[in-house]
Design brief:
64% of the residues lie in helices and 17% in strands. The chain is built from six helices and three strands; from the N terminus they run ααααββαβα. The structure holds zinc ion.
């Protein structure tokens, strides 16, 4: 049993090293990392418990160490679950300041209003943005779109954008449709 635990520990340590690099960006890799981490702690727990039981005969060491590992892993899993739910609920990514983002759009020459603005995460590491830009002159639509895409990329790293350009009359027609 002890030999199996030692072999498991070595394999898990190698896997953890491989996964730790990507675990800050991808939720999937982070999930895999926690899986291996809990396995590693399990192996370590078996080794320590075996040593304690062999040296002292205190058999309670085994369940106590097992419970301690569980208590260590549960809060980390909870954080992972919260991040996954945030993505599923299409919440605004925490690193994106939506107020600042709206101000940057309003700063673009010709833009008079912004509405239906949403930023959400498609999958961890890939954010998407959509909005309507009301412009003073539809003749400037192309320049506005180019400026908006540049502002989203340089200011917020957002490259998956969908923007609807409208003038005041289109905005009003849209408002009537929504009534
Ligand atoms: Zn609109």
């Amino acid at each position: 049993m002890l030999a199996v635990a030692v072999a498991g520990l070595v394999v898990n340590l190698v896997s953890m090293k491989l996964l730790s690099a990507g675990s800050s960006e991808s939720l999937n890799v982070k999930g895999a990392y926690f899986e291996v981490l809990s396995d590693m702690l399990g192996s370590l727990g078996v080794i320590i418990a075996a040593a304690v039981v062999m040296l002292t005969g205190w058999t309670l060491a085994d369940p106590i160490i097992g419970a301690a590992i569980g208590l260590f892993i549960v809060p980390r899993t909870w954080i992972l679950l919260r991040q996954a739910i945030h993505i599923l609920m299409e919440g605004t990514p925490p690193e994106v300041d939506i107020t600042l983002l709206e101000r940057k759009l309003l700063d673009i020459p010709g833009v008079v209003a912004v509405h239906d603005l949403h930023v959400w995460t498609i999958t961890s590491g890939i954010d998407a943005m959509s909005c309507h830009l009301v412009v003073a002159d539809m003749g400037q639509a192309r320049a506005t779109l180019v400026g908006a895409n540049e502002a989203m990329k340089s200011g917020f790293g957002l490259t998956h954008t969908t923007m609807q350009i409208e003038d005041q009359s289109l905005r009003e027609a849209e408002g009537e449709l929504k009534l």
